[in-house]
Design brief:
By secondary structure, the protein is mostly beta strands. It is built from three helices and 25 strands. Helix 2 packs antiparallel against helix 3. The chain starts with a helix and ends with a strand.
Length: 552
């Protein structure tokens, strides 16, 4: 017993000695506390503060996988008068020889045929054929798209308000129907003391392109296609703000390349080929000055509203008509008059547009419910009308069906040696209803119209009583009307996960172009034939998608 007691006493003494030695090694002052990451909210940017910094950082984005498709109808491309003359020779009707001879005479550019303007324009349509390799059999009706979006915000407080920097990048991989493969800067800008500078949402647009992947009629420079700009916004309290901005002109495009100006929207020539004598020869002459935007906006508990305006510099040229036959034919009312009048091929003017919209919250119908209506009217500034961006941005040629509208800010007619200008407008509405916090439905619709000056009315040169002088008004459809309806059914089973099923339908109806000749069928084949006056002015179709999105 005495031995056991001695062992325990020795062990205890040893433990005390070791503890004393460890205590002697501890610092005599209190250790510095560990600095933890802190949650922050600066100017609406909710993230975390970096240790040793006053900067609030936020990471965000989403990954979406989608499956899309749409119906395919017959394509109609624009051909030349020579195409029509060749096909007319195979047309087995009594007057086929006369038709072929008349078309051949027109195509020579002699004084008798000059008023028809032998360009690749809407004088002649060609139905898609196997020789063009663009029949419905050879086109995609189904496809996939995957997009990854990554956003980064940095914010800090200053004596003049929050200083915020933001950018987000899209990377897309598409296959078949919606074949887009690109990585690009979607937005990237700095805001401070009312100043916004960089690639940002346009202050002209009240809303983006709607809730569907395909867009309704809106100058969608908020959800996509944002311009480069510098702007100043003044706040007056009560939710009222006013903004002035200078932004890049025209189509901004995938990849963020801004400044396309008015040089977009030329007709679809597909595999027929494009000669120098065509509407696509109209060339952007460079940005003389940016587009200037002004906007008044109010946001309160009931919703929000905005009215805005833009002035747009149109600077284009078309030198194709300073060459034969237009510069050496006498008797013309335009280019080549008495062999002394050169084409007035350079054109600069001021285009403009106005936009207005209102969004009303409807909490009595359901939490998060609202209704929105917006509209735009433009002259010589078609991009701001919202029409070019409808559906897949095909200028009314849904899924390649039918033929597109001619979307450009100016058009040159060498017969009258004058430029035509477009007026365009659109009105769109969107209603969102939540059946439950997890299920919602968006309904949207649009209607719009494009009209060209100096284009005359639908008069075929092969029709009895059609005066040749009417051809001088031009070769485009003088007007086109388009409308669109769509729905988006969504389900949020858990936080940050979204399932959507969408469907949209668009129809475009163009009036018969002045001086229209007819349509060629079976183009490029031995049995091709020509039908005088046969105009196909309706382009329509539907598109839908199913998408799964994870947000963070």
């Amino acid at each position: 017993m005495t031995l056991i007691k001695s062992i325990f006493m020795g062990s205890a003494a040893g433990i005390v000695a070791v503890a004393g030695a460890q205590a002697a090694d501890l610092p005599t002052k209190k250790a510095a506390p560990v600095e933890y990451v802190k949650v922050c909210n600066v100017g609406g940017v909710t993230g975390w503060t970096l240790p040793g910094s006053d900067t609030c950082v936020k990471l965000s984005g989403y990954i979406t996988g989608q499956f899309e498709g749409g119906n395919l109808n017959t394509q109609y491309n624009y051909g030349s008068i020579a195409d029509a003359a060749a096909a007319a020779a195979n047309t087995f009707i009594p007057q086929s020889a006369a038709i072929a001879a008349g078309l051949a005479s027109i195509n020579t550019g002699t004084p008798s045929g000059l008023p028809l303007d032998s360009r690749l324009t809407q004088r002649v349509l060609i139905q898609a054929s196997s020789a063009q390799n663009n029949t419905t059999f050879n086109r995609n009706e189904f496809g996939w798209t995957t997009r990854a979006n990554f956003g980064f915000d940095i914010a800090s407080n200053t004596a003049y308000g929050p200083l915020i920097g933001h950018f987000d990048i899209n990377s897309e991989a598409g296959n078949a129907f919606d074949n887009v493969n690109a990585t690009y800067l979607n937005t990237g800008y700095v805001t401070w003391a009312g100043i916004t500078a960089g690639k940002a949402q346009s202050f002209y647009s009240f809303t983006g392109g709607g809730d569907n992947w395909a867009n309704f009629a809106s100058p969608d420079q908020k959800g996509f296609n944002e311009p480069d700009l510098i702007a100043y916004t003044a706040s007056f309290g009560g939710g009222f703000t006013a903004t002035i901005a200078a932004q890049s002109a025209g189509q901004n495009g995938v990849g963020g390349a801004s400044g396309g100006g008015t040089d977009f929207g030329a007709p679809n020539y597909a595999n027929i080929g494009v000669s120098p004598l065509s509407p696509s020869s109209i060339t952007f002459g460079g940005m003389k000055w940016p587009d200037f935007v002004g906007a008044l906006h109010v946001k309160q508990g009931w919703g929000e509203a905005q009215v805005s305006g833009v002035i747009h510099n149109v600077n284009v040229y078309d030198q194709a008509y300073n060459t034969a036959p237009f510069n050496n034919v006498t008797g013309s009312a335009g280019c080549g008059l008495s062999q002394s009048l050169a084409c007035n091929a350079q054109h600069e003017q001021i285009g403009w547009g106005v936009d207005a919209g209102v969004k009303v919250n409807l909490p009595s119908f359901g939490a998060g419910d609202d209704a929105l209506i917006t509209g735009s009217y433009t002259q010589s500034a078609v991009w701001y009308s919202g029409l070019p961006d409808m559906m897949w941005g095909e200028n009314g040629q849904v899924n390649g069906n039918g033929q597109p509208m001619y979307m450009q800010d100016a058009f040159f007619n060498p017969i009258t040696n004058s430029w035509s200008k477009p007026t365009a407008w659109s009105v769109s509405a969107l209603i969102e209803h939540h059946f439950t916090p997890q299920f919602y439905l968006d309904l949207e619709g649009s209607v719009g119209q494009l009209k060209w000056s100096n284009q005359g009315g639908g008069c075929s040169f092969l029709a009895v009583g059609c005066a040749t002088a009417s051809a001088g008004y031009g070769a485009l459809s003088p007007s086109a009307t388009t409308w669109l309806v769509g729905a988006d059914l969504g389900w949020n089973p858990v936080n940050n996960l979204n399932f959507d099923l969408e469907l949209m339908y668009q129809s475009t109806n163009q009036s018969t172009p002045n001086g229209f000749l007819g349509t060629v069928y079976n183009w490029g084949q031995t049995n091709e034939f020509f039908v005088p006056g046969d105009w196909h002015g309706v382009s329509d179709g539907f598109a839908g998608r199913f998408r799964v999105t994870r947000y963070f």
